[in-house]
């Protein structure tokens, strides 16, 4: 699903990863991280995709750099980060960007917003 974000500006954290073949606890931990992120002040939404080639891109949206820092330092998230480095990822890159503008369109039949 496409994240419903507020009017810019806000921040995007782009996490691009290449998975290893280790599956143990990955899906459960990923679900837990999403639950925790949704509880964090300043979290705005997330979009994620992974291809058959094990390349994945997750973009999370945040109200401020302070919110991003707090998420990075969250205790359970820190444990997951360590496991990611040691077990789940062959490579990854995290990028932080300021979203200054956005535009788009929705198929009204799929939109969570009421028709005008």
From TrEMBL:
<feature type="domain" description="ABM">
    <location>
        <begin position="10"/>
        <end position="96"/>
    </location>
</feature>
<keyword id="KW-0560">Oxidoreductase</keyword>
<dbReference type="InterPro" id="IPR007138">
    <property type="entry name" value="ABM_dom"/>
</dbReference>
<dbReference type="InterPro" id="IPR052936">
    <property type="entry name" value="Jasmonate_Hydroxylase-like"/>
</dbReference>
<dbReference type="GO" id="GO:0004497">
    <property type="term" value="F:monooxygenase activity"/>
</dbReference>
<protein>
    <submittedName>
        <fullName>Antibiotic biosynthesis monooxygenase</fullName>
    </submittedName>
</protein>
<dbReference type="InterPro" id="IPR011008">
    <property type="entry name" value="Dimeric_a/b-barrel"/>
</dbReference>
<dbReference type="Pfam" id="PF03992">
    <property type="entry name" value="ABM"/>
</dbReference>
<keyword id="KW-0503">Monooxygenase</keyword>
């Amino acid at each position: 699903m496409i994240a419903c974000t507020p009017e810019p500006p806000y921040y995007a954290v782009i996490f691009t990863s290449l998975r290893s073949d280790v599956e143990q606890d990955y899906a459960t931990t990923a679900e837990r991280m999403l639950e925790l992120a949704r509880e964090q002040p300043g979290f705005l939404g997330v979009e994620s995709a992974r291809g058959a080639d094990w390349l994945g891109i997750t973009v999370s949206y945040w109200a401020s750099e302070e919110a991003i820092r707090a998420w990075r330092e969250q205790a359970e998230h820190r444990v997951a980060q360590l496991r990611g480095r040691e077990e789940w990822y062959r490579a990854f890159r995290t990028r932080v960007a300021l979203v200054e503008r956005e535009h788009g369109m929705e198929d009204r039949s799929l939109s969570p917003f009421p028709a005008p």
